[in-house]
Amino acid sequence: MERFIFMRDKKALAGGKENIQGIYYGNEFCEYHIPSIEQIIDHYEFAEKNGLKFVLVTPLISDYGANLLRKTFSRLESICSKMELVFNDYGAYHIAHSMKFKSLALGRILSRQKRDPRLTKFISPGSKVPKFGVDYFKKSVANSPPQFLKEFGISRVEIDNLLHGNFDEDCAVSCSLYYPWGYISMSRWCHGGLTNPPCNKDCCKDSCTLDDRPIMPVELYHFGNVLFFKNSKIPFLKSVDRLVYMPEPII
Hints:
Elements: E1 2-7, E2 22-26, H1 37-49, E3 53-57, H2 63-75, E4 84-87, H3 90-96, E5 103-106, H4 119-122, H5 131-138, H6 146-151, E6 154-160, E7 174-179, E8 181-186, H7 191-195, E9 208-210, E10 220-223, E11 226-230, E12 240-245
Parallel strand pairs: 1-2, 1-12, 2-3, 3-4, 4-5, 5-6, 6-7, 7-12
Antiparallel strand pairs: 8-11, 9-10, 10-11
Helix pairs in contact: 2-3
């Protein structure tokens, strides 16, 4: 089992690198947080120096983000074969597929998991939902026919540690399991960017907790344009060969 850490910056490894095989760097949810080429190279060189694998993570993008990624990938051409890429937008895949990245992974935004925490009650033992229905709510793209993923050259799927459990049969590729922060949903609206235009990354500093909703079995955490839940219980899943530890939500 590989163990990676999803880091905002190198301070995340201040406590040591024991039992860590690699780092994830970048973001999944906001194109305004795509790191600069200098930051990417700095963290890549840090990983190389410490004998760690390096995974670059890219977010959902618009034309703005697409133009930025084209410039970024072109600057990384000489070293991209030594790094993995996680994409969360098929536009980013289209830009990257001609590059020689070490491998391509389908990100959490595209993994098509059913993340609503209320499902823990809806499909709990003793419910009237039949087994095929329970399995449906636990599946992801990793459980799709292998032809789809192979056609796109995708060798890995990034998944959340669902509160109601993950389906662990018929996985076409290996999976990376994120913990303890799982994402529920996102939008293009951001409370930080909306109140303080242009974006000054207030979402990295401000958040709110939604804990007064009786219908929800867990607290919800709102950062920027994303709603998160926490699940620190790591299950044993045959399809998972990599754990991705997130010390904090990264927008």
